[in-house]
Design goal:
This protein has 270 residues and is an all-alpha fold. It has one domain. The protein is 79% helix and 0% strand. The mean pLDDT is 88. Belongs to the UppP family. It is found in: Cell membrane.
Length: 270
Amino acid sequence: MTELWELLQFLFLGLFQGFTEPIPISSSGHLKIVQEFMDVDLPGLTFEAFINFGSLLAVLVIYRKDIYLLVNHASDYVFKKNEEYKSDFTYLLLLVVATIPAGLLGVFFDDLFGESFAEVKYVGLMLIFTGIALWIIRNLKGYKDDTEITLKDAIIIGLAQSLALAPGISRSGATVVAAMLVGLKRDSALRFSFLMYIPVSVGTTIFAVDDIVGNPEISSQFILYIIALLAAIVSSYFALLLFINIMKSGNLKYFAYYCLIAGVLVFFLL
């Protein structure tokens, strides 16, 4: 019975964290809420790294064509001097620039952010903040496509991504909000947001390798971790498709409603 309960717990957490990772409601914030509400001990950083890797794989699958063309065209510009693909090379550089703020803050101040926002009431406040931000951009359509993103735009979006170090602020929500505020069209904002997620997620996975290798729980719970990983891949895949469809239809207000209601409930009830 204990083994079945443990399997169901890992399956649930894999599905839950995987689903909340791509959509703008903050997976880290929701994990804190689940921990507080259900009074359970979460598996820890090694588990989070596994789930993060699952979400990364889902993003890579959905944006595989964009990634292939971007890397291929940028390579042709660099090595074959094909001026036709200069915009793709520039786009790739802007993605790199946009990942720097979150990368630096994550390396040096991740623990500080975690300690400063450890109380679940702070998660409620950050969810309210996310909801207000999503509400502000709910009707924006943008006017810039991928070729019109500037260095200033990339820096602003990158700084917005660093805000997600605080549990309750969604990474995808913060970056999409910032991208829409600087004028990107909905599809361009979403694409830039998740393409810049890839290097950050890869970096997180690489930094977690030592913890994963040195964690004695992995050998004894390997099957459970794999089940959670597979669950995260599937749930992240469908969650991202849902987010893409909601962005296309201009219904971000529903995420705003959810974050506002959830934030108020968490702040006053937990």
